[in-house]
């Protein structure tokens, strides 16, 4: 990156969400002028963004068409994380704004949380912990994951890592994706489902690892829950809007889903009546979107994001590497 220093000297970068100090230090090391404003309001962002050539965000800040239209000098948007659903990619393309992210940096951390939530759901840990906190020493009987069938919906980096760990536990893996995953599945000893509903019908546990797109919005809704095996477990560490909260609430109350373990909701914190009821439901384990929130993942995210950001910014400024 030192070779890029002459090109990036004085580049103005706005960072609007909390990031690892490593990212900030790397930007300053090449001479960029960094304005670190985690928690900046929408109004402040719209007022300030015209001054900057690069914008760094995580999940909170929405880089929509309005923001991009205000950002007359913007060359690069960097999402310090995996997904890009909070960036209007079409509007960015129209304005020739490059968009970069760190797709592989959080794989291990999200996979580990997925397995942890799976185990917590199987062993009914929320119920047991709540009893213990009240001084009630009552045994809560769960189930083992060994020998159970896990449907991995979305067989990308994270889905494959989850499948690898689950195989080590002794689970049978069935994988589903809209792209050809036969090669990856064969390497991991997983079976490939012909369609989503057939995977859901066979699984004792369903884990979701798909990006949020128009095609995956409410991917898990009424018909999908009706297709699931009765008494199964649902885990979602991908994007909240992949699951229809009202349909999930119905599935829980009908006993179709025994336990839902969720790291994400469509609105965070819960905003709709269904989401609030899910958060309070005795058979829902809910965490606060912590999939990538480990020291190790955040450092990998910082390293990968800053590398991609600086390369894109140098290219956009017309500098040769």
From TrEMBL:
Residue span, D-isomer specific 2-hydroxyacid dehydrogenase catalytic domain: 13-315
D-isomer specific 2-hydroxyacid dehydrogenase NAD-binding domain residues are 115-291
Q: Name one GO biological process term.
A: L-serine biosynthetic process
User: What keywords would UniProt list here?
Assistant: NAD, Oxidoreductase
- Can you name one GO molecular function term for this protein? (S)-2-hydroxyglutarate dehydrogenase activity
Superkingdom of the organism of origin:
Archaea
PROSITE patterns per UniProt: D_2_HYDROXYACID_DH_1, D_2_HYDROXYACID_DH_2, D_2_HYDROXYACID_DH_3
Instruction: Report what the protein is called.
Output: 3-phosphoglycerate dehydrogenase
Q: Which organism is it from?
A: Pyrodictium occultum
């Amino acid at each position: 990156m030192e070779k890029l220093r002459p090109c990036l000297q004085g580049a103005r970068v706005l960072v609007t969400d909390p990031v690892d100090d490593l990212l900030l230090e790397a930007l300053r090391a090449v001479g960029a002028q960094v304005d670190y404003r985690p928690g900046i309001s929408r109004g402040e962002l719209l007022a300030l963004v015209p001054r900057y050539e690069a914008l760094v965000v995580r999940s909170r800040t929405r880089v929509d068409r309005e923001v991009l239209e205000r950002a007359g000098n913007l060359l690069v948007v960097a999402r310090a994380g995996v997904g890009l659903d909070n960036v209007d990619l079409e509007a960015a393309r129209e304005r020739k704004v490059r968009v970069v992210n760190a797709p592989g940096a959080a794989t291990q951390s999200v996979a580990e949380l997925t397995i942890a939530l799976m185990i917590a759901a199987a062993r009914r840990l929320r119920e047991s912990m709540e009893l213990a906190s009240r001084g009630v020493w009552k045994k809560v009987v769960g189930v083992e994951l060994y020998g159970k069938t896990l449907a991995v919906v979305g067989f990308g980096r994270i889905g494959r890592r989850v499948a690898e760990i689950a195989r080590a536990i002794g689970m049978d893996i069935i994988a589903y994706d809209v792209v050809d995953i036969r090669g990856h599945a064969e390497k991991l000893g997983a079976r490939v489902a012909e369609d989503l509903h057939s995977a859901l019908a066979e699984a004792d546990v369903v884990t979701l690892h798909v990006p949020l797109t128009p095609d995956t919005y409410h991917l898990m809704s009424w018909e999908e829950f009706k297709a699931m095996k009765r008494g199964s477990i649902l885990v979602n560490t991908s994007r909240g809007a992949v699951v229809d909260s009202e349909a999930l609430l119905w599935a829980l109350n009908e006993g179709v889903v025994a336990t839902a373990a969720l790291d994400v909701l469509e609105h965070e914190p819960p905003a709709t009546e269904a989401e609030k009821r899910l958060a309070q439901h005795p058979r829902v384990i809910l965490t606060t979107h912590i999939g990538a929130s480990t020291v190790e993942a955040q450092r990998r995210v910082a390293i990968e994001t800053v590398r991609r950001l600086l390369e894109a910014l140098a290219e956009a400024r017309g500098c040769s590497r």
